[in-house]
Amino acid sequence: MTTIKQAWADVGGLSKPSKMPSHGYSLSAFMCKVGSKLREIKGSSCADCYARKGRYVFSNVQKALDNRMHQLQNNPNWLRAMIFLVSHYCKKSKVFRWHDSGDLQSVEHLCMIVEIARATPNVKHWLPTQEGSMIKQYKNLYGEFPDNLIVRMSASMVNGVPPKHHTHTSTVATDTSLAIGHMCPSSLQGNKCGDCRMCWDKNVPNITYLKH
Predict the structure, then answer these.
(1) How far apart are the first and last CA of the chain?
(2) Cα 101 vs. chain centroid, distance in angstroms?
(3) So where are the chain's domains?
(4) Which helix (H) or strand (E) holds 96?
(5) Cα 196 from chain centroid?
(6) Nearby residues of 13 by Cβ (< 8 Å), 6 or more positions away
(7) Would strands 182-183 and 95-98 be described as parallel, antiparallel, or unpaired?
(8) Whether the predicted pLDDT of 58 surpasses 80
């Protein structure tokens, strides 16, 4: 048993993006592994990363993100606390978004996310990622993800094609006419999800997001 206050401290807090219909979880984009490499490639989806500018670079925000990384890597109560917080904050929305900033750090990190999804079966989890090798390693070791966890591999390049060999993917386009599959409607509704839940829908193979 724990309290919201203690669980919040054990994970370093949750994020609450204004676009999202629920809470989420974020890490520093400066700690992305594949993303940091793509950052150096012109025209990549990470070259103009929104999570490396604006309010994300404020010292208090980076301090909070660094604390989350510390808790993730060092706090033995992190997993239990995350289950507690997701269960508490997602009772109404029933959806949770992983990494509105940042990305997977290891296969072990992914395994913990899987455990959180299994422990919260009434919540749909959406995990976008550039870490294809980690996804492959996990599947080779453990098989498929739980039904309530959708992992979307992100395209490396803007206006690029969906990553191959992945059931669920996402792409970034500079214009709606270049959309592949479903187009995220947020640009038409105040940059908010609204009633849309396509990102969490396993019947949607690819979603295209308009470049920020």
Answers:
(1) 41
(2) 7
(3) 4-156
(4) strand 95-98
(5) 17
(6) 64, 67, 68
(7) unpaired
(8) no
The pair of three-digit structure tokens given for residue 146, joined into one six-digit string? 């739980």
**Share of residues in the chain with pLDDT > 70 (%):** 99
Residue carrying the six token digits 């917080």: 85
The DSSP string of 152-175 is EEEPSBTT-PPPTT-SSEEEEESS
Helices (H), the chain: 4-11, 34-38, 59-74, 78-89, 107-119, 132-142
What letter represents residue 187's amino acid?
S
Tokens (6 digits) for 187: 């640009």
**The predicted structure's pLDDT at residue 123:** 98
Identify the three-state secondary structure at position 16: coil
111-118 average pLDDT score: 98
Q: How many CA atoms lie within 13 A of 146 on its CB side?
A: 20
Helical packing angle, 107-119 and 78-89, nearest 10° = 40
